[in-house]
User: Fold this.
Amino acid sequence: MNWDEHTKYYDWEFDLICTKQRNDIHIWKALASEFGYPILELCCGSGRVTQELIKEGHNITAIDNSSEMLDILRAKNLPNLKIINSDMTSFKLDKQFKFAFISYSSFQQLLTLEDQIKCLENLQDHLEDGGVLAMDINPRICEGEEILPKTHSYTAEYPVNESTITMYTSHTIDRVSQIKHWKDEYLEINRNGEERKTYVDISLKECSLDYMKLLFEKCNFEIINIYGDFLKGDVTENSENLIYVVRKK
Assistant:
């Protein structure tokens, strides 16, 4: 996915529709306090989680592959923050960290086992001995039926430039590779009636509990905890988010 295309709507849309995901800040605050800093954040985006952890006094190195997202983060002028534009499979830093994390199912943007292993091996190189990695995984990405053709998702006022945005979405599911592919269309109409369309594609790979256990074992991480929600609840068959907390062996 090219997140640069979605940057102008990202924070606004998150606040509009991602009511459950907002609660993830509870677990990132708790884990950051438990395992300490310096902290490495992968896929930081525009800094929704980053800024909240810095308010708690943490020192963070934040990485994302979208320069537009990082421009938004830089504009926040946060202290104790180093920003790096790079990919989570290939970044190289002359530093190791006590705690690293990947929020909001972002690890699932890696669609092949090869890239997932590259990411975890790269994190091995950047964690201190006994350093801890945490990530939020949605284990139910491919549940449900496909949505075709495009379907109306929402219409809402966009206050940035006094316009109205209507979002249409569709998705297909590759059952063999366990990947869901979304195609979203944003129709923005300003107060003069002028229209602008933005198209965004995103794909996420489903990662089951057993799959993640094997992946961490292969990449020399031991599991400390697996939580079934953002308040450190137990894993159940209804858990929509699994938060893995693993330690470098």
